[in-house]
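Justification of resources, computational component.

The compute hours requested in this renewal are based largely on the per-chain cost of generating structure records like the one below. Each record pairs the submitted sequence with a full structure-token output. That output is archived, and it is also reused by downstream analysis tasks.
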Amino acid sequence: MTDSGNAVSTHRISVGMLALAIFLAAPPLTQAGTPQQKKSKQGTKPASQSESDSKRAALHQALPEPLTSFGAAVLGDYLYVFSGHDGDAHGEGRDLLADHFRRIKVDDPEANWEELAKHHPAQSTALVTDGKYLYRIGGLSFLNSSGEETNFNSTQFFSRYDVEEDKWTELAPLPEPRSSLDAAVLGRSIYVAGGWNLQGKSSRDAPWHEDILRFDLDHSEAGWQTMKGPGYNTRAISLAAYDGKIYLLGGIGERGISRKVSVYNPQTDSWSDGPELKADSSTAGFA
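The structure output for this chain reads:
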């Protein structure tokens, strides 16, 4: 689900870290494009064969409703899920946004979803954590209800959730409305990349955000800092922090879905290219 309501990218589990982990840890590919197999004294066998004998996936309680384009983050023993779109794939209206904020204990398959203090619902919102608090950033809302003429409303929210008090606190808003973005925490700073400012009836003329943003959590008085972006417009991305750098993966550009990987080094304020994401065809991408 993207900002415009098209079911292109699904959930926004801002576990860009998940995408990065797959990107960094995936086994090398053979010429046929399949993972190489590990060899043992008994011959060649799939690397996961013995593991699958001893490990079983545990299913948790399903979400109370079908959901796409939500924000999600893990803090402590819990997975937190913020809002999202729970209506028809092509539906556009504020009543189709999930007006919920929930969590579930990740190590207990019998755990139930817990309802938490709500915040303004939206889709394509980023949710990140610094290890103590959760931060909700941007997202798309609507000024219309379903069945009415579409009126998009990208937002400027930057809000902190206190797990102990079950309470939201408003922080310095984004410099401009932004949705279809992602965010990552590196050190004590939050980085925001990608997205656009979608307002009104159509996405056709929506301005893209070419920059990235940084917010120093230890010096909030400085507000948001603007820095140069990767050199191309993109949204519906995954953003992750790893080994002192910020990784921007995939997304949707002005010409379609992207396989690009761009790496930002805060120490030098510079970008470099990473290996493209693998795909089965020249037209496939990642969003």
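The mean pLDDT is 85. DSSP finds two helices and 23 strands in the chain.
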